[in-house]
Amino acid sequence: MEEKDRSSQSRPPHVLIFPLPLQGHINSMIKLAELLAIAGFKLTFHNSHHNHERLVKFNNIAAHFERYPGFEFKTITDGLPLDHPRSGSWFLDMFEETMEPKMKQSLREVLVNSSPPVDCVIADGVSYSIPDIIQAGELPINGSEDMDRLITTVPGMETYLRCRDLPTFCRKLDIEDSIMKLVVKQTRKSLQADALILNTTEELDGPILSQIRTKCPRVYAVGPLHTQLNTRLNVKHGESYDHISNTLWEVDKSCIFWLNKQPNRSVIYVSFGSITSMSREQLVELWYGLLNSTTKFLLVVRPNSVIGKDGEGEDVVMELMEKSKDRGYIVNWAPQEAVLNHPAIGGFFTHNGWNSTLESVVAGVPMICWPQFADQHVNSRVVSVVWKIGLDMKDVCDRKIVEKMVNDVMVDRKEEFAKSASEMAKVTNQSVNVGGSSYSNLDCLVEDIRIMSL
Ligand code: UDP
C-alpha cells in the first residue's frame, strides 16, 4: 500500500479494481466495482485496452458509470497486439512471460502516480487447496490410476471430491507443469491478501467458507454479485432496475424472440462460456445428442471456439445450423442472464464456469454439466452431488449420453430437478435481500474498507 495522504482523511476510500483480462473475471469485478461506487467510494477500474474497447463497443458502459462521479476507467496493455485473436489457450500461454510483467509495471506506475492515493487494491486470486493436496501426496501419480479415488485433504469435501473432480492440470502429478507452477505461485501470493471477497453465499458454500477462514480469517461472501447489484440498485432508486451488461462479444438478441415462441420450460440452453473450445467431433456428438433427445435447444457457438483444420470448425457450425432449423436455434453469443431467466428455458447445458453456475442457480434452472478445466470440475461435482440440481457428464462427450442426460433433466426427472433448483434459487436470492447474509457481508466489507482507509 502506498504512503497515505493523511491530510485528506475525510475523502471517500479510493479502491482500485483489477480483473484478469477474461470475460468471467470482468463480469464479477465490474459488478463489485459498481457496488462499492454505490457505497460512495472512489473507484478506479483497470482493464486491458483490448477488453475496455470491447466493453465500450458492445455495452453502454461509459454513459452508465457517469452517474458515479468518482468512477474512472483506466486501461493498460495486456502485452498483446490489439488485433491478436485471444482464442484457444492464449491466456495461459501468454500470462507469465508476456502479460504479467507488463501489467505489473503499468499497475505500479498507476499506484505511484494515483491521486488521491489508492487505499485498497482488489485483484483476482486462486484456490488455496492445491498446494495442500500436492503436499499430502494425493494427486494422481499418472493418468492411468483410479480417478474415482476420494481426495481427503480438503476439509468439507472429503466425502465427494474425487481425483476426476480436480482441475485437469492436477490429474497427473507433474510439479514442472507450467500451469501447476503458476497456480502454486499465485496461491502463495493470494495467501498474502488482507481479506478475501468471494462471489458466493454462506448458504451455498458454508463448509468451504469455514475451511477458507482457517487460512484467511477475513472472508466476505457477498454473492451472487449480479443479484446483489440488482437489490442495491433497487434500494437506491426505489424501482425495478437491472444492472448493465458487460459483455465482450456482440449479443444476438434474436434468440429471445425465438424463445418467446416456445412453451414454458421446453428449451435447453447450451453454452460453454467465454474461453472453452471444443473439437469438431465433440460439437458433432453434442449436436446429435441434442437432436436425438426430445427437447428443443438454444446453442451458443462462440466465434473461433470450434477447433478443426482450416475453416472446418466454422463449416461444421454452418452445416448444423442448416440441419437444426426446426429443432434448435444457434447464436454466436447470447444475452445469458436474460436467457436463463426466460420462462421457456428448462435446463442449462453448461461448462460450469462459476458465473454461469451462479446465474443458473439464481434463475432456478437445473444443469447438465460438461466441465472442461480450472474450477469447473469441482463446480460440476457440487452441482450434481451436493446441491443435487443437475447431472455431471464429466470426461465424456458421446451422443447417447448427451441424449439420455437431456431427456432426464428435461423430461423423465424434470419435476425432481425443477423442485430442487427452485428451492436452491429461493435460498440464494434471499441472501442478497436486505438483511440476508450476503447483503450484510457487503455492508461489513464497505465498513472495513472505510476503516482501513483512515
Ligand atoms: N456469457 C454470455 N453469453 C454467452 C455465453 C456466456 O453473456 O453466450 C456470459 C455468462 O453470462 C457469464 C460469462 O459470460 O457471466 C462466462 O463466465 P463463466 O465464469 O461462466 O465462464 P468462463 O467464460 O470464465 O469460462
TrEMBL record:
SUPFAM superfamilies: UDP-Glycosyltransferase/glycogen phosphorylase. One of its GO terms (molecular function) is quercetin 3-O-glucosyltransferase activity. Keywords: Glycosyltransferase, Transferase. The keyword Glycosyltransferase applies. InterPro entries: UDP_glucos_trans (IPR002213). It comes from the Eukaryota. Belongs to the UDP-glycosyltransferase family. This is Glycosyltransferase. It comes from Gossypium barbadense (Sea Island cotton).
